[in-house]
Each structure stands twice: as C-alpha cells, then as structure tokens.
Design brief:
heterodimer, A: mainly beta, 4-stranded antiparallel β-sheet, 5 helices, 27 strands, B: alpha+beta, 4-stranded mixed β-sheet, 3-stranded antiparallel β-sheet, 19 strands, globular
Amino acid sequence: MFRFAFLSLVVTLLSAAVSVRGDDAMPVTYDDHIAPIFKRHCFQCHGESKQEAGLNLASYAAAVKGGSGGAVIVSGRSSMSRLFQVITAEDAAERMPPENEPLPAEQFALVKAWIDTGLRQNAGSAGVPTRTLSFTPSVTLPGDGPPPMPENLPAVERTKTARPFPILALAASPRAPLVAVAGYERVDFIDPETRDSLGAVPFPEGEPHVLRFSRSGAVLLAAGGRPVQNGLAVLFDVRSGQRVAELGNETDVVIAADISADERLVAIGGQGRVVKVFSTINSELQHSLVKHTDWVTAIAFSPDGQLLASGDRVGNIHLWDAVSGGVVLPLSEHKAAVKSLAWRSDSQVLASCGEDGSIVWWDIAKGWPAISKSDAHPPQRPAGINAKIANGVLDASFSSQGELITCGRDQTIRVWSPDGLLLQSLTLDAEVKPTVTNLRTRTLPLRAVVTFDGKTIVAGDSAGKLYTWPSDTNRKK
Amino acid sequence: MNPLNSLSIHARRAAMWSIWLILRLTSAIAAEDETASVSASPSFRSDVMPVFFRAGCNAGTCHGSARGKDGFMLSLFGYDARGDYERVVQEMPGRRVNAAVPEQSLLLLKAIGGVPHTGGKLFDRDSEYYKTLLRWIEEGTPDDATTVPDTVGIALSQVSLEFEQAGQTVSLQVTATYSDGSSRDVTSLARFFSNNPSVAAIDADGHVKSAGPGDTNVFARFSRFTVGAETIVLPPAAGFVWPNPPANNFIDTLVFDRLQKLRIIPSDICDDETFLRRVTLDLGARPPTEAEYQDFMADTASNKRSKKIDELLASDNFADYWAALWAEQLRVMGGNYSPDATHIKAADQYAKWIRTQFRTSRPLNEFVAEMVSASGSNISHGPVNLYTMLVHAPHVQAKPLAADFSQVFLGVQIQCAECHNHPFDRWTQDDYYGFVSFFTGIQRKPGVEPREKRIYWDEKSSPAVNPVDGQGKPAKVLGAIEPVGVTGDPRAALAAWLTSPDNELFSKNLANRIWAQLLGRGVIDPIDDIRVSNPAVNAPLLDALSKRLVESKFDLRSLVRDICHSRVYQMSTMPTSSNVRDTRQFSHAHLRRLRADVLLDSVVAVTGVPRPLNYWPPGTRAIDYYPRSSGGTEGPNPGDPFFATFGRSTRGTICACETKTEPTLSQVMHLSVGDTVRDRISASPLVERLLEAQTPPEEIIEQLFIRTLSRRPTTSERTELREIVGDAVQDRLVYEDIFWGLLNSTEFAFNH
C-alpha cells in the first residue's frame, strides 16, 4: 500500500514536471514567461539603464548573448547555465538577486524549462526538437548454436577468508540463464533461478572488480587484481573454464574494463588514468587513450562496435572511436566519480551513474543528456542526522528490453523504463530502517544486473551476499 | 549513557592502560597479557583515529588536506569522525579495508610500506599502531556506538621544564581525560613540537632535549587539544651577578623576575634626551619641540619624567594618536561609491566618533561595546560603521566579519575552524559557527539618501550551519558550552560578554596591544595571533597588565602611564653583553622605526613646512589621515605615496602585520632624493631665520640637532660639522645640507 502510494506520488511529480517542461501546448517562452520574471528580479541591475557585468536581460537577444564574461545561458543545458546556477545558489553571497530572498520555486522551474527546451523567444519560435528514446530490442543475437554454458568445470578450492568478500562484480550472460559472481580470488557461475552453482574459475591474481560476458556469451572477461600491487584482465572460455588470454600488467587494480562485441578488443583502466586497448588476438596494446585526469572508473564498448566510453573519478566521460582510438566527444554532467557506464543494445543510448547521485541517459547522436535524474537513489534520512548523506549510484546496467537497473548507497535496486520512469524499487533489507548508528555500517548493493530473459534481477552486496528477485514483482526470493 | 556500556569501556581502558604500561616496562611480561589485548575490541574514534593522527595520516600535508591526497581524504586531525569512517570503510568498497583478508587491507599495507605509498612507511608491522588497526579490521571495521567517551582534555606530566645546560633530556607523558571521567596515557598517540628547537627540541616520543640558552615552549597535541610546557635552558651561572636594579612599579618587578630567572642582565636606564624623544614620539606622535627640549633638560626635579608623561597624556595629541591607531585597525576608509555603505560621509562620522571617545577618555570596554551593539544609519551614527568597514564588501558577510571581529577584539584567529577544528588552539567548528551566528542577522538597507545605509538585525535570519553535522549553531560566545539563548539581536549579549571585566581574552588582548605599541613587541607576539601554541613570553606580566587595565575600568591612560613610568620602558637600547641575544624578554629597549604617519608628521614638525595630502584640507596631520577615494573601498588603499613607501597599513585586512616598519631601498631613496624632505628643507624658514638673527655657526648646528634628533651634537660631530661650514658661515645651503643629513639619518627615522 505504501509502495503504491509512493509510486503514484512519483508519477504525479513526473507529470507535473512534464507540464512545466512545456513540450506540449504551452511552450515556455521568453516573451510570455521569462521576461516578467527577469523584469521583476533582475532588470534593476541587468536592464536597459544599467548592465552590471555587462549583462542585459531586458531583451531576448541581449540575454542570450550574455555579459562581459561570456554567455550565461546554454541552450538545452540549465545545469551548465551560469544564470541558472546563480539564481539557485545555496550560498547567499553567491546568489542572485543579491540581498534578497531566492526566487520562488515555480519561477526556477520556468527558467529551467525555458533553457532546457531551447530558449524559445515566443510561441512562434522553434524549440529543441523533442528527443525520442524509442527502442526496439534486437531480435537476432550473434553466434550460432546453443547458448554457451559452463560444462563440468574443474573444482576450484575456496581461499579461506575471515568473512565473505564483498561482491565487487556481477555479470549476466546475454544468452543463457547464467550469472558470474566475483569472489575472493575466484569467479563463480550460478543459475540465477535456482542459485545453484554451475562451477567456478580461479582468479589467483586477487579480486575481480569487473566481470563482463562477451556478446556471444562464450567469453567471460574478469578484470581486477590487488590494490597497489597488480592488475590485469583475464578472458575465460565459458564452456571449459579455460583461460584464453591475460591482458595488461598493471601496478594497481584494474577498476574498469570491457570486451568489444566482436571479442577482438579489451579495454582496461584504473589508477593510471590511461585507457588501454588490447587486441585479444595477439594480446598487444593497440591504443593508449590519454585524456582522463583522474582514475578511470568505468569503461564500456558500444554493442555496435563503433564507440568506447570511459568515465573517471572526477565525473568526466569521454567517447572514443573504438577501432581507431580517436577522440569523439566529451560528456560532462557528473559532478563526482562515474561509477558505471552501460550501453543500450541499440547503441543509441549510453547510461552513466555516479557518486553525485545522478543517472544520465545520453543521447549519443547529439552528445546531450536525453534524461538526467539527480538524486536517483535518495537516501532516507534517519532522525538525528542533518549532514549530507552519501547518495551515490553505484552501478547501472541495461536489460535486453532497454530497461535500466541501478543500485545505490540508499540500499535499493531500481528499475527504470527506457524513458526514465521508475518502474520498481527493491530494498536489500526492507525491515531495517536507517538509523544514526547503522547508517554507515549497513551493507551496500555494489552491483545489480538483470538476466538475459529479463526475468530475474540479481544484486551483490558489500558483505558478500547475493540477492535475486523476479523482475516483475518486488517480492524477495 | 547506558551503564553497561560505560562499564565495558572502563574495563577496556583499564586493560589498554595495563598493556601500555607493561610494554614500557618489559616485553617479557607483555606476552602474558596477550589475552587482554585480544579481548579489547578497538574503537574507531578512541583507538583507530588516534593512530591516523599520530602517524600523520590526517595531517594537512597528507590525507588531511582539504582535497585529500591521491584520492583519499581524511578530516584534518580528525574533526569529522563520521566522515572519516565512511571514507575509510564505505567510500571505495574492496579497496581501503579488507575485512575478508584483514592483513591484505591497503590501509595496513600502505602504512607499513608493504606497497608503494607517497607518504612512505609510517610504522612497523610489529608496532602497537599496526596491531590496533589490524584488530579493528579483524573485528569487521565496526563503527562506534554513539556513546563513545569523548576526549575532554589532555595534560602533560610537567608544566614547566628547566635545564641547567645544553644536552640534557627529560621525558614528558601525555594523559588524556574522557567525558566518562576515565583517563589514559596517550604519549604513544600524541604528537609533539617545539616552538624553538634551537633552545629545546622534542622528539616523536616526548623526549625533550636542551640545545642552547633561552626560553621556549614545547607542546603535545592529541585529539583536538594542544598543551604546552614552558622550557628554559639557562646560560652558565658562572660570572652571572644579578645587578638588582630598582623597580619603579609592578611591571619592573615582573620583568626583572623573569630576567633574573633566565640569567639575563637588563640594560641601564636611558638618558633624559632619549627619554624625552621616545616618550614624546610614543604619546604625542611627534618629536619634542626645541622649547620642550630646553625646558625638560633644564628641569632638575626628580619626578620630571613623570610630569612629562602626564603632560603628554593630557594632550589631544595622545587621544588623536590612539584614535588613529584604532581607525587603522578598524579599517576606516571612505569612498564616493555608496553601495558599499562606506561613503566618505560615513567614514568621517566614524573617525570623528572614534576620536571623540579617546578625547573624552571613554573606557575602552564601553568604546567597543557601543560599536558591537550599534544599529542605525552609517552616516549619522558613527559606531555602526563597525559593520560597514571591518569587512569592506557589498553585503555583510557573517563569516569574515566573525573572524575579523575575533582577531581585532580578542587577538584570536578563529577562521581555521571554519573548515576544521583549529589545529593548534582550542577552537572547534561548533565554537566557530556559534560565534558566526552573532552576525548572520546583520543586514543593510537603503536609507533616506543615496549615501546612507541602515544597519539592522534581521529577525528572520537563521544561525550559521556547521557543514560537518548540518546543524544550525545558535549564537554562542567563544569557549562557552551553551548558546546565549537570546531571541532576536544577540549582539547586546555579545557586547556584554566581550567587554566584561571577567573576559580575560578581551582585557589581555587590549593590554597586550597597548604594551606592544609602547615596547615594540607584544608579551604575546604577533599581537593578533593569540593561541595555545603562541603563549605569553612572560605570563605573569600579561596577567598583571590585563588586571591593571580592568582595575582602572579600562582606562587607556592609566595603563599607558604605568608602562611609561616603568624602568623597563625607560631602558636604553644599548645591550649588555648578557642581553645582546635577547629579543623577547624586554631586557633592553627595541629600536623601532617610526610609523609612516608619525615619520611624515615629524618631517613636517621639524621643518615647519606642511605636507599636503590628497582629498584632505591643507594642514591635515598624517595621523589624522585615512584613505579617501573616488570609488569603492573594497581594495587595499595606502593612500598617499609616502605611506605606501613607508608601510602604513593599506587597510586591506585587519591584520596587525599590515603596518610595516621594515626598511626598504625605496625608503632610503625617498628620503634622500624624494620631494618630501627636499621640498620641506628648501621651503623651511628655519635656517633663514637663524642666519638673520646672526646666530653663530656652532649654535645653528646645535639647534638643528636639537630640532631633528632632540639632542645636542657630540664634540666630534660639532668639530667636524664646523669644519664643513668653514668660511661659508652665511651660506644657507651649507646648513641645509647638514639639515638634510640629519633628516636622512637612521637616528631620525627611529625611536630609540
């Protein structure tokens, strides 16, 4: 009952947001909506008679042109627009208008909608073309024959640990009822329905931080190592469990890695700030992609094999040409570490999530955020805590149906529709409410994936516990 | 608190205590205590964070930096335990700690140098520090229950140390006390430093070693506390005979006590000429006139110095000079740009008000209190400009205002505590934000005319928020536990606390500033950086000065009179062989270059030719000058170029260091070839008048000396200068050259 109420509340809020966006009958325009706001709050200092900082907001052309420091409004990007930043600033010393109350919330919403819909001057002007996120799942999967499954893998002795190791990585086979689970010095294969073991492969180099199946489902990429000791990526033949390649010889853990759709390339990244692309055929380094200014924390090849996306610990994302290694686009929206990058199977949309609490669906053709959800995993605030609570989104992956599965520091796993609506929210332990004392000791869901058939959601937590849910209900199995 | 909890913590502390004790005595017995060590589960706050502190992990140059180091941040010296726990345990799952395979934790491997670490190896695998961290990770990196006892203070095993010679060693122990009443030896977890290792050095384990004669302080830090021990290393006793100089008053008694203890022989008292010039410059901001010189030298009364002091104290010059010093400290500046609320009209009103307070001998505490609680118009109510000029900005900015307020009126710099607890003092972030809340409601609104702004308290304002816990901190005076609890404008409560006779922070700050103005150096120096780790060089002296100020009901003149009466003030600048190395115990007078404004006024007084100052009417004295400009007042503004050259405060900040008296090449050039001295000499009627009066050359030379340097020339000066004059006894230029030489002498530019 509570959950129903919550969901309907979300829907109400979203529909409210849509009406303000003005994509439909009543677009937000400068003449009708924005000029009256500016007139009331801004013209005194930024008008026809006086232009503090060279900025005149009293005419459409002058407002768009900006002040002596350059443009203050970026079409389509309220978050990047200086004007929007200063009117919404929390610090009173920075906020405009000075020595005044902040603008009312509905005026924020109008200004935001005006910028995001492309700075219409009047009802006659064209806005930003409405972006479509329509999605058709590809029906044909590459590869012939039956989907690869582990076949009689040799037993792998379990390294004795004081307590279970956190599940740092999970991967679901794109073709089979098979999930790979990272453990300490090993990777386990399980059946997501029954949670039965289907074998394991050893990873004596340390802890796998990334697991990825190739698109054919025949190869498993496991990348990791030991912090500040060693790092590498290993390719396993899923059927036999044999190691087929070892790539990279790093001095620190490989934090991010992916294998290309054609299984010819593997990209890895980590503390070294460089994205290294290896050939799987001869294990040679093909490209060193140098642009990140901090640790590389996420890497993903597009399913069509054209692009490679990489994200770093300060929140920058770069798109590269997967084959040539050339620079394609920077994508900047995240304000803190990017935790995960995931491509939708049609290669048109890249999803990113990060420690800033946001999820972004990138329209790759335009290089713009098609949908941006801030505070996508809002943490519950226990009584007695006023400080900022970490709200990072730790992992994101697409289902074959184009739904996005995310998990966050709020202990929930969430499922989002292709157009960014929240469909489902699952909690690791719904009975335990956050309190002052358990806020920082609760386990965190580190990874969440959905199986090839879309039926089962699988998550792993920081205490090494595995969770599965049928994806159509929120009942915990 | 849960009694069960407190019991177990007690028990744990007892166990820890015994372990440390035993480890110190013998390692053989330690093995038997192994069970106790295993049973004690380390607490993150009480055991783990102190290791971070001791090993330097959370120091400002390492992970304690505001942005952390190599991506890992800890709060500076551990002010944010919750945040540190989160960053160590949860920020990067699978990296910093590894509860599954504890000894593989990066935290441990980095600290023992097991893997590359920018900060290097910090301790050994078999150290207590390693064992503490390992046990905590083995326990599953537990966070503390909210009831962990907080450290409430620390103490050193000795409060003062005295070494008879260099090369001796004493070991200090540090004991921490906790909010549950327990205490523990934290010597192995504390950090130590010495203010002057060339006197006494202290090593990482608290062993103090004397190095050379002098006095300093050594300190221990633990949790958010710093405590010090005064440390004296004596010069050889052989040949030291205390001369037992007479004491004029309590000041001499306390300074001489200290000097005798340190085996330093003070200098003799200065001669009458030196005294007259010194006290006139100090109290009147000008050199003595020739007539004053002759009268004073002719006076044979034994109390003539006292009479001179009283005479100077009674003059308006004294009041105006102190008004000028305060105006500089309070950043009085006026501009023609009204939005900053610092229009020239406001500055004039403020300066006039300040001067009136000193001319009418207003008690200093009342003077300050009126400003602190002032509201109203900036152009008609002078004292309200504390809130327009202490921080020059388009808006009232509570945080800089609180910091500057504290530095000016208390001598305490609290701004460190904006981002973290003060590392070398007792101020916490709660202290800081509580103090800021006295100012968060101060607003300006337009007045009836464009130049006017009205200062008022906004009843809707909310207190400043401490970002660590997100809580608003209601207005609370420094060092208090409870807020003032006032609804509405809390500044009256602030003023009452600030200027209360019981507030030693205030009275000591004022007494120290007055002392420093007259002696050239504070008992605490720098005067506006009073903190635990910068203690008074003679604590009883500062206590007595402060007490005297309070007893006189904050009467400036009473304290100045006492200081000037003292033999210490009247000592010669000539050092003895015993005190030549002393720079801080007032064993001899300090050479002090004249402040820029006093120097300019002295040139004018000696030559008798005024010096015009821009934006001011003719005849304005330099000490009465404050910067006026055609624009805003936000930037530093030294005003006249002479002031810029000679280091008058630019009033860019409230720091006492804005007033500079260091010599520079451009000062020498300015006096020797600049227009200030040259134009004044050529326009001066002095030489002309003496020549017209048929004054003999020897007499002219003597008059120039008395006028410029307040002394008669020595025999050799007299002879040599007479030779220079030679036959040109009526040549005005020769005497002007001599005059120029005197005005360019360091003797003229210094108070000695």
